[in-house]
Amino acid sequence: MENTLHRIKKYLDFKGVTVSAFEKKLNFSNGSFASQLKKNKTIGVDKLEHILIENSDLDANWLLTGKGQMIKKNRSEPLNSEKTTFKENLNSPEELLQKDLETAKATLESQKDMIDLQKDFINKLKEDIQRLNTEIELLKSKE
């Protein structure tokens, strides 16, 4: 069963960050996270809080439950957070269109950010494939 530590590792792999670099960035003792991961242990709330603060794009709900998306959507507030009053319903069509345009722009920016993250991840995977193919060729040549 996948736990919080495994999801952290999945996030690190997605970002192309090594476990040791992650430990150094967060000032964890050398090998502490790797050891917890290897032994399938748990992680303290203080460390989880520190991880979420230092990795602001990491979605807390996904990290803790495995539900939702790994990377936060780039939204300043949830869609349903605005309370609508009667007065707000009397906006002119131009104002309504402006709000729609702003929402569309924010959505587009969020999607562009996600595409950029995915492109970076694909490039890292291509580099890994190339490195592995080179290693395979070296091993074959030694046989």
Low-confidence stretches: 75-89
Which class do the helix and strand fractions yield? Answer: mainly alpha
Rg estimate, integer Å: 21 Å
Helix content: 55-70%
Here the CATH topology of the largest domain equals: 434 Repressor (Amino-terminal Domain)
Calculate the terminal CA-CA distance, rounded to whole Å. 39 Å
Largest sheet: none
The tally of helices reads 6
How would you state the average pLDDT, rounded? 82
Structure report:
It contains six helices and no strands. With 143 residues, the chain is mainly α. It has two domains: 1-72, 434 Repressor (Amino-terminal Domain) (Orthogonal Bundle), CATH 1.10.260; 74-143. Mean pLDDT is 82; it is low at 75-89.
Compact summary:
With 143 residues, the protein is mainly α. The chain is 64% helix and 0% strand. The chain has 2 domains: 1-72, 434 Repressor (Amino-terminal Domain); 74-143.
Secondary structure elements and pairings:
Elements: H1 4-15, H2 19-25, H3 32-38, H4 45-54, H5 60-65, H6 93-142
Task: Name some characteristics of this structure.
mainly alpha, 143 residues, 6 helices, 434 Repressor (Amino-terminal Domain), 2 domains, 64% helix
